[in-house]
Amino acid sequence: MLSGAASLAAATVLPGTAHARDADAMEPDIDSTADWGARSPQGTIGLLRYRPSRIVIHHTVSANGSDFSRAQAHAHAHWVQDLHLDKNDWVDTGYHFLVSRGGWITEGRHGSLRALAGGRDFVLGSHTSGQNEQAVGIACEGAYHAGAVPPDAQWDVLVTLCAYVCARYGIPSARLHGHKEYGGTLCPGVYHEMLPRLREEVAAARAA
């Protein structure tokens, strides 16, 4: 895995791939809501005093752009939050974390990163009907219907993030699911078919 500086140096090959902190190879570099300048929540965000039991993977059905920069990851986080606040009338971004096409991770719902670091509780999300009180929601930038394939940078960092979330919360690698398992939706597109591979790679990352 590349450190942040090394990954930037290699950006012409795989922009944004694996921005891991040197102190802990399992801990990815996650930009907090403060880092990307999120709007304040429109109300109180619930904190659940227990650990989640699974992860649910989503895609945001945004453009499959070629801008793999950190700035684009922040712009995407703003786009998702604006959609959830202004159109859905939710208290905040519904997802706990977002993974950009360039492999940058942003905190979605306020408090998610702090709770993850503690490993004992998590914030109530708004990402999957019937699962918000049990699952961490991770959304990938882009639309992955009709055969679209995630960029390598996004995939690699999704594996790293899922491995870290599983490690912090004691979630088995087998408990990675797709949104469509819990309702009438096509989300997360091709990511759903890639779940067996994701589970395998997350298990391998944890073992390493």
TrEMBL record:
InterPro entries the UniProt entry points to: Amidase/PGRP_sf, Amidase_domain, PGRP, PGRP_domain_met/bac
Keywords of the record: Signal
Family: Belongs to the N-acetylmuramoyl-L-alanine amidase 2 family.
GO terms classed as biological process: peptidoglycan catabolic process
Signal peptide (from-to): 1-20
N-acetylmuramoyl-L-alanine amidase domain residues: 40-189
Keyword field contains Signal: yes
GO molecular function: N-acetylmuramoyl-L-alanine amidase activity; zinc ion binding
Name by which UniProt lists this protein: N-acetylmuramoyl-L-alanine amidase
Domain Peptidoglycan recognition protein family span(s) in chain numbering: 28-183
Taxonomic lineage from the root: Bacteria, Bacillati, Actinomycetota, Actinomycetes, Kitasatosporales
